[in-house]
Design goal:
The chain is α/β, with parallel strands linked by helices. 39% of the residues lie in helices and 21% in strands. The protein is elongated, with a radius of gyration of 28 Å. The protein starts with 5 loop residues before the first strand and ends with a strand. Its EC number is 2.3.3.13.
Length: 523
């Protein structure tokens, strides 16, 4: 840790609070995989689940406690003896552990949910914290709905649990109600007015109902909090929780101003974001800060011109340092000549003035029709301008035999543009995309792993366009292709072809004159 900077401990609750989002349920195996990646990311604490809630959650917490090292494992429990027992047993093999206990404190929760008096709540809090201390040294207590509780009773609850041995006090904004100035000031008042308030650690747990979870968490950090509870991609109940990647990068980007740092490895952020998105089947919004598709993409000509001259003109973070593939400039109707000329030059093509003017006109016509012009389309336009075919391979056609049972069968015709030769290939698969891709792979001189597929509907009605984004892996490199088509299967096939053509261009295939095959090798 840098001298003079306060350490903020990142408490990840993706596998507990994040999984409580409707439809986000994970298997124990998925939780274990994600937990290992979270440890690699550098989080300080993982809350893997709610052990009493189900046998699967108990098993997940137990396996993660046994198999994931280098992080603190937190068992979650209501202020109920059986919950505490389950959390203690599930985490007993952890290298380091804490127990996180919660109990409602606001009047609306006490009157309509718990149906208990404030005196009864104080008694339960005391009894259960004292009970938990028999098993676990580090006990975190959360007065649920603290931001709607009122100072007087909040102080009384916190004083009681500190007296019984609680070591970490979490003041949660359970329903995302607080404003940043209110939330930060609440921690300050608790630290100043609660007996023993300076002897414990503090944690912030914010929900995002008003879109203020990150702002509130930053306010808590400024007030002296040293633990912040977050989820990957901000997943969680209702509008979600404080987003790990947004909070961490806010602290990292403005660390000189805020004077704090975390132990997170930024280059692992994108990997864990994608992993959680796929496991939960929760797409990431295009405009999601840090990890969204558009977070580091620029279409406006003025922005593109500035970025080509100096990246810092319009970017305050380097996406490649976050593990995000560099795709800085997106070409569309707002793009200027400078950016388009630069992209064309990256393909090793130089257009004279007359060719550039003709190409630019054709580009604008296409961009007006479909918003974004992708690389394979750009190469096609350039090829038409210079009367050459620039893509190594072209998917000429594909035919599918599909049905409700059995394997799907596909045949596809692919042109090797180096020779102008067309060949037909056949493939099978459990699904139509798998069958088409199996056939297409046979045309390639290298192994291309179909790594990821994203599908989007771009319009409504009976004949919508579908957009497919395909990521392929060749050796240790990844390549991404995008295509739009009325037939979503063909969109995926064209996107796969576009990604493989990127790989072929980068690998600079050499031609073996004897067997007229393209072999990936050194240029």
């Amino acid at each position: 840790m840098e001298q003079g900077k306060r350490k903020i401990h990142i408490f990840d609750t993706t596998l507990r609070d994040g999984e409580q989002a409707p439809g986000a349920s994970l298997t124990p195996e998925q939780k274990l995989i994600i937990a290992k990646q979270l440890a690699h990311l550098g989080v300080d604490t993982i809350e893997p689940g709610f052990p009493i809630s189900s046998p699967g959650d108990y098993q997940a917490v137990q396996r993660i406690s046994r198999e994931v090292t280098g992080v603190e494992i937190c068992g979650f429990a209501r202020a109920v003896k059986e919950d505490i027992d389950a959390a203690v047993r599930a985490t007993q093999d952890a290298e380091r552990r804490r127990l996180h206990m919660f109990l409602s404190s606001s009047s609306i929760h006490l009157d309509f949910q718990l149906r208990k008096s404030r005196k009864q709540v104080i008694g339960i809090a005391r009894q259960m914290v004292a009970y938990a201390k028999h098993f676990v040294d580090r006990v975190e207590f959360s007065p649920m709905d603290a931001t709607r509780t009122g100072d007087e009773f909040l102080y009384e609850v916190i004083e009681a649990v500190i007296e019984e041995g609680a070591t970490i006090i979490n003041i949660p904004d359970t329903v995302g109600y607080a404003m940043p100035d209110e939330y930060g000031a609440m921690f300050t008042r608790v630290m100043q007015n609660v007996r023993g308030g300076r002897q414990v650690e503090y944690s912030a747990h914010c929900h995002n109902d008003l879109g203020l979870a990150v702002a509130n968490s930053l306010a808590a950090v400024r007030a002296g909090v040293t633990h912040v509870e977050v989820t990957v991609n901000g997943v969680g109940e209702r509008a979600g929780n404080c987003s790990l990647e947004e909070l961490v990068m806010a602290l990292e980007t403005r660390k000189e101003t805020i004077g704090v740092e975390t132990g997170i490895r930024p280059e692992q952020i994108y990997t864990v974001s994608q992993m959680v998105s796929r496991a939960m089947n929760f797409p990431i919004a295009f405009n999601k800060p840090i990890v969204g598709r558009n977070a580091f993409q620029h279409e406006a000509g003025i922005h593109q011109d500035g970025l080509l001259k100096n990246r810092s003109t319009y970017e305050i973070m380097d996406p490649e340092q976050l593990g995000i593939p560099r795709s800085m400039i997106i070409l569309g109707k707002h793009s200027g000549r400078h950016a388009i000329k630069h992209r064309v030059s990256q393909f090793g093509v130089q257009l004279d003035e007359g060719q550039m003017e003709s190409f630019y006109t054709a580009f604008k016509e296409l961009a007006d029709k479909q918003k974004v012009v992708h690389d394979h389309q750009l190469l096609k336009l350039v090829g038409q301008t210079v009367n050459e075919v620039l893509e190594p391979y072209t998917l000429v056609s594909a035919q599918l035999v599909t049905g409700s049972t059995g394997h799907r069968m596909a045949s596809c015709t692919i042109r090797n543009n180096a020779y102008g030769e067309e060949s037909m290939f056949a493939g099978t698969g459990e699904g139509p995309i798998e069958a088409v891709v199996a056939g297409m792979k046979q045309a390639l001189p290298f192994d291309a792993e179909f790594a990821d597929l994203e599908l989007y509907s771009l319009s409504s009605g009976e004949a919508p366009n579908g957009e497919a984004i395909v990521t392929v892996r060749v050796a240790d490199q990844t390549y991404r292709g995008v295509a739009v088509d009325r037939d979503i299967i063909m969109a995926a096939a064209f996107a796969f072809m576009a990604a493989c053509n990127q790989a072929a261009r980068e690998w600079r295939p050499a031609v073996d004159a004897q067997d007229r095959r393209v072999a990936v090798g050194e240029s």
